[in-house]
Write a structure and sequence with these properties.
mainly beta, five-stranded antiparallel sheet, 5 strands, 0% helix
Amino acid sequence: MVAIKIIKSSNEKDWYSNKIGQIFKLSLKDNISFMVKNDSGQFLAVALDDAIIIDVPD
């Protein structure tokens, strides 16, 4: 499984500003953001500079 780990938040208004260090399954990557799905199935964007891609064992 490929996932992202939040390493910082560029903006305190980002939905993930209080989730630094947490890991989210990566759904999609475009030129400006990583897309992740929350528990409700909504797609949420994380700025590319604010996370790193990690490989997580399935």
